[in-house]
Amino acid sequence: MEPTSQHRHPLSKRDFALLALDHVAYVKPEPHDGRAGYAIHAADGTPIGWSEEREIAFAAVVQHEMEPVSVH
Question: For residue range 40-49, what is the model confidence (pLDDT) as tens digits?
Fold first, then answer.
């Protein structure tokens, strides 16, 4: 049986972000205290870390059993 539009409930941006909140972290270039580096954000945009090196930022995300995603 094909779902109809009556049975679909669109997710808000907030709901969509909450689905991945504990599983995905975004890594993006972002300076901190005048130094170049990489910010780590939860799926909802909450800052959760920072590193001067991209590889270290990704490793920190994986260490916390999350999936790193690069954002440019």
Answer: 999 888 999 9
